Amino acid sequence: MSKKIFSGVQPTGNLHLGNYLGAIKNFVDLNNDKENECIFCVVDLHAITVKQDKDKLRQNIRETAATFIASGIDPDKSIIFNQSKVHAHSEGSWILSCMSPMGWLNRMTQFKEKAGKDKEKASVGLYIYPVLMASDILLYDTTHVPVGEDQKQHLELTRDIAHKFNKDFNAEDFFKVPEPLINKNFSRIMSLKDGLKKMSKSDPSDLSRINLTDSKDKIINKIKKAKTDSLPIPNEEQKLKDRPEAQNLIGIYSSISNQTLDKTLYEFGGKNFSDLKNQLAEILLNKISPISDEIKKLINNQDYLDKILIEGAAKANEIARKKITEMQKIIGF
Ligand code: TYM
Is 201 a catalytic residue? Predict the structure, then answer.
């Protein structure tokens, strides 16, 4: 069955292996299925929920688009655009925020994490960020949303908002209720320095993540320095319990090699982590370095990237404008 796919990535720099394995790699597989209609969005409106430097933001928008293309998304097949250029996203977000109970937003764990201890200083935008995400998804009659595990709660909120709008305005099936597509085993890639923390762009330690633009030497060095424990690699998944760093490295190896955890444990059970690390570094160099080289090439071709984004925005606008016009009619504008 053909799927309507929508997903987004924030242009906040340092796109890393977690973004790739948790999301972008799946975008590529979905793009490659002829049946699917895919839209991949550089979510710049989401990025400004925390302070950004305007020159860096402009650069990161292009770099995120370059990462999509360098990873294998074909701009002739999938729509690639940046969110701020399609105004329906903001309009839809306002309308949806007026019918989303605060109680629902108060439950969002990512806001609590990102706002930290001083919630009073967090922007209002950061608080209603998940409603903008719902607008992104619902405007395109999206059926499936590929994301990492950290976005699951936002997807549940999107589903709740869709149901509520349809019910409140007696508009059965107006919004499609989308399904999340979350990779079961490898949906949460953890920091290389602390297996209990998510690999993240904002971690102050660069050694905690593999950036998609890292040089070969950096990748080798980061894997060498990745935290492990002193026990050998087990041969059963059960025995990875309470060994978060071991679990993470085995997970990353399995995911990047497209194989099950069981197969990796069969290959490496009884061996030391140095064996796994050597092989992991080699696979990462094979898979990530070509992407990295391509990103660097594309970044130097600004005109090409801008053309893709402008053409993508025109196509997205056509779809989103129709939906927002219908939405306005439904609510009485
Ligand atoms: P963002 O930019 O934080 O992350 C982009 C994608 O990468 C995934 N991800 C991870 N997956 C596994 N392990 C990790 N350590 C890891 N870190 C990040 C995220 O789950 C995400 O899929 N709110 C979204 C962007 C967004 C969006 C949307 C997504 C805006 N509108 C509509 C889907 C549909 C975000 O901040 O992702």
Answer: yes
Going from N- to C-terminal start, the domains of the chain cover 206-297
pTM exceeds 0.85: yes
Q: How many angstroms is it from 232 CA to the middle of ligand 1?
A: 33
For ligand 1, the distance from its centroid to the CA atom of residue 206, given in whole angstroms, is 19
Decide whether any atom of ligand 1 lies within 6 Å of the 198 Cβ. yes
Q: Is 297 a catalytic residue?
A: no
CB 299 within 8 A of CB 213: no
pLDDT digits (tens, 9 = 90+) for 18-75: 999 999 999 999 999 999 999 999 999 999 999 999 999 999 999 999 999 999 999 9
Distance 268 CA to ligand 1 centre (A): 31
What is the side-by-side strand order in the sheet with 144-146?
A: 79-82, 37-42, 4-9, 144-146, 179-181
Residue 173: DSSP 8-state: T
How far is the C-alpha of 244 from the C-alpha of 190, rounded, in Å? 9
Q: Are strands 144-146 and 179-181 parallel, antiparallel or unpaired?
A: parallel
The reply to whether 198 belongs to the active site is yes
The H-assigned helical ranges of the chain are 17-19, 25-32, 44-47, 54-71, 88-98, 102-106, 109-115, 124-138, 152-168, 216-225, 244-256, 261-268, 273-299, 302-331
Q: Which CATH class is domain 206-297?
A: mainly alpha
Is the CB of residue 13 below 6 angstroms from any atom belonging to ligand 1?
no
> What values do phi and psi take at 175, rounded to 5?
-95, 130
